[in-house]
Specification:
319 residues; mainly alpha; Ferritin; two-stranded antiparallel ribbon; 13 helices; 2% strand; binds Phenylacetyl coenzyme A; Ferritin-like; EC 1.14.13.149; Ring-1,2-phenylacetyl-CoA epoxidase subunit PaaA; oxidoreductase; phenylacetyl-CoA 1,2-epoxidase activity
Length: 319
């Protein structure tokens, strides 16, 4: 059966449902319910915005990295994040939206980006902790998205996850070196861990019973796990790494539960999460102002590229 993007009817819906039930990929040319398309536009564009805004906290440290080696690593990481944003905007565009419009929605505050990037990076230890915890959380969240039902999103995630894995390792390696250093350096690492632990847990989103989108997104195969499942996976993975590193995670309720086969842990401050997501976090205004300024400053580059493409196309057509 050929399925086109015409008005939905029961045959289109049945074909889509059968593809989801059989765990087949949905591609941009396939008919899809409007709710599925909208959910993907929302998630993929928020994800793209997060990668681009996420360049800022670490980008601040490129100019003052303590060695050439650290500067080269950090530059490569931040450039990777720009690339991730581009793959994800390209995946979103296959759903019929325009990247320029998505960016406008971001800078106007009409679209979200990850709460985590609204916290400041105060010392160079934050670069290590962002790599270890923030990229570690991103990997936990994103590896299952390589099996997302929408083809372009799933394929983008495969490459992104490979690069996130390097990001996580560079962070952990930096922290290992700092923990072998002076008492002052060890204190700097512990302070950064204390500040980033709870925001990292919030990256996975609200608890399942307060997550309006999870059930629908899982039924459609867009998400493969619930927010709480992934948060638990992250805690279980991270506690032994913290022990090895010699830092304390700032949660008095963190304890191994033999019966469950998982760590028990405390609740993040969900009021703080709501505040940060609604735009009132420590760095929201600064992050958006910078993104808006970069977008405006880059207008001439976009215009020049478009003019060049037009000229090139006219020349090709004339041959
Ligand atoms: N921050 O019903 P749910 C990275 C919103 S990339 C802000 O549970 P859903 C790489 C949510 O959008 C990090 N908003 O929603 C890197 C929804 O609002 P809406 C980004 C959040 O979509 C590392 C509402 O709350 N990763 O770190 C957050 O089913 C280092 C209700 O929530 C992704 O985007 C939050 N943390 O589940 C870069 C991964 N959580 O739109 C640089 C893909 C929830 O209805 C340096 N996304 N909200 O108004 C996902 O997996 C999902 O979208 C979730 C949220 C799990 C984030």
């Amino acid at each position: 059966m050929t399925v086109t993007q015409e008005a939905p009817d029961s045959a289109h819906q049945a074909h889509f449902d059968a593809a989801i039930a059989a765990d087949r990929r949905i591609e941009p040319r396939d008919w899809m319910p409007e709710g599925y398309r909208k959910t993907l536009v929302r998630q993929v564009s928020q994800h793209a915005h997060s990668e681009i805004i996420g360049m800022q906290p670490e980008g601040d440290w490129i100019a003052s990295a303590p060695s050439l080696r650290r500067k080269a690593i950090l530059l490569a990481k931040v450039q990777d994040e720009a690339g991730h944003g581009l793959y994800l905007y390209a995946a979103a565009e296959t759903l019929g939206v325009d990247r320029a419009d998505l960016t406008q929605r971001l800078v106007d505050g009409r679209q979200k980006y990850s709460s985590i990037f609204n916290y400041p990076s105060l010392t160079f230890a934050d670069v290590g902790v962002i790599g270890w915890l923030v990229d570690g959380a991103a990997i936990c969240n994103q590896v299952p998205l390589c099996r997302s039902s929408f083809g372009p999103y799933a394929r983008a995630m495969v490459r992104i996850c490979k690069e996130e894995s390097f990001h996580q390792r560079q962070g952990y390696e930096l922290l290992m070196r700092m923990m072998e250093g002076t008492e002052g350096q060890r204190a700097m690492v512990q302070d950064a861990v204390d500040r980033w632990w709870w925001p990292s847990l919030m990256m996975f989103g609200p608890p399942d019973d307060e997550s309006p989108n999870t059930a629908r997104s899982m039924a459609w195969g867009i998400k493969r796990n619930t927010n709480d499942e992934l948060r638990q996976k992250f805690v279980d993975m991270t506690v032994p790494q913290a022990d090895k590193l010699g830092v304390t995670l700032p949660d008095p309720e963190l304890v191994w539960n033999d019966e469950r086969g998982h760590y028990d842990f405390g609740d993040p401050d969900w009021n703080e999460f709501k505040q940060v997501v609604s735009g009132a976090g420590p760095c929201n205004a600064e992050r958006i102002a910078r993104r808006r300024a970069a977008h405006e400053k880059g207008a001439w580059v976009r215009e020049a590229a478009a003019a060049h493409a037009r000229k090139h196309n006219t020349e090709e057509a004339a041959v």
